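Example record for the data management plan.
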Amino acid sequence: MSPVDPLTSTVLSAIIGIVLLVVLVLSLLGVRRPSTPPMVLCAVLLVTAVTIAIVVRPIAMPAIGVPMTVIGIGAATLGGNPFTRRALDIATGKRVRETEDGGILIVAAQHADPAHVRTLMRGGTVIGYLERICTVLAIAVGFPEAIAAIIAVKGIGRFPELAEAEARERFIIGTLASLLWAGAIGLIVRLSLG
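Corresponding structural encoding:
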């Protein structure tokens, strides 16, 4: 494949930066109430940006690359929240109630009344943000092996809570959705920076 001329590379890099900005804005609008259409649009935009980054390989000049990287890190970190929560809602059919901090409420099996509710996986929202920022940074700097450590630390920290089926399901789906989101954006940033 012949190298892309500087003007085309700059224009495509700017387009990728704009796509990441749109994804960030749409994601932020969905933080309170994630819904499927905006998340699908974000996913389509990200697939388009990944395709451009892989096929054309535009290299962003620093004037575009630095803001694009910052926007990409924001889109990966903050934007992954509504994407992951929407994936969890779809997978669980909204049968699991969330707490404000991203934990889940579980009614003890032997008790049917809500007085015997306990909270599992507290802090899931903050853990998700940290997981995504570490993932996007690991990929952007060319050290994707760090993702294995991220998953290991998260698994070890959550292990005692994974005895409940709802917690296991939420852990697996949430982790995969979160990593997929951050990984796609990390790939876009990495390829665009050369």
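Summary line stored alongside the record: The chain has six helices and three strands.
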